[in-house]
Design a protein that fits this description.
Snf7-domain-containing protein, single chain, 7 helices, Snf7_fam, 0% strand, 229 residues
């Protein structure tokens, strides 16, 4: 009966707005969980940087390895912070979409018609490209198109995954390490010593260092992936 009615009179506006709101709430909860998880990763990574610093101070023979480890963790911390900022921005966009959708349906109830919104279309196109929301945002875009709030489906040519970010500048790494180690040393009144960048060495030694650094990088990434899981 409901299917026949929808064919004759069109989709039920109340059912449409409920479904859109449910999808928006679902996506908002997903973003909240992801943001909280990234905050936990950030906290653990800060602890690992401090632990590596302490280990290097206690055992001078491990100072070089500990310094490299600190810089690797600092780079991961920077990436985590950038991802968290991106998700917070996306959540604000999603909340804006929710308010605009509610307003559009309210206008439809009063005026009997609904106008497409370029603003909503722009936000939905942006959010559907977010890997964390791609599936459910596609569903939301379809519902909004059925309701006439957006005029066309978002493009199908979406990126296969998150683009690999460029390596963070050494100055940014130094800034993060200074921030974290300064907090640790503030109680003692000491000035934190930032782990130095590798010094140029003869070719043979440099090749050996590259292999060691690559192995350490793989190890650090594995530990960070374990944190995120």
């Amino acid at each position: 009966m409901q299917t026949i009615r929808s064919l004759v009179y069109g989709p039920d506006p109340q059912a449409q707005v409920r479904k859109c709101n449910n999808l928006i709430r679902q996506n908002t909860r997903k973003l909240d969980r992801d943001i909280a998880a990234l905050k936990a990763v950030e906290s653990k990574t800060r602890s690992l940087i401090i632990a590596a610093s302490k280990r290097g101070q206690r055992n001078p023979s491990q100072a070089k390895a500990a310094a490299q480890e600190q810089r690797l963790f600092a780079r991961e911390l920077i990436r985590t912070r950038k991802q968290s900022t991106r998700l917070v921005t996306s959540k604000a966009q999603l909340q804006s979409v929710g308010m605009q959708v509610s307003e559009a349906f309210s206008v439809r109830k009063i005026e009997g018609s609904i106008k497409s919104s370029v603003g909503i279309m722009k936000d939905v196109n942006s959010l559907v490209r977010l890997p964390e929301l791609m599936g459910t945002m596609r569903e939301l875009s379809q519902e909004l198109m059925k309701a006439g709030i957006i005029e066309e489906m978002v493009g199908d040519s979406l990126p296969d995954g998150v683009e690999e970010e460029e390596d963070e500048a050494e100055s940014e790494v130094d800034k993060v390490l200074g921030e974290i180690l300064q907090e640790k040393m503030s109680k003692t009144g000491k000035t934190p010593a930032l782990p130095s960048q590798p010094v140029q060495e003869p070719v043979a030694a440099a090749e050996e260092e590259d292999e060691d650094a690559e192995a350490m990088l793989d190890q650090m990434r594995g530990r960070l992936e374990a944190l995120k899981s």
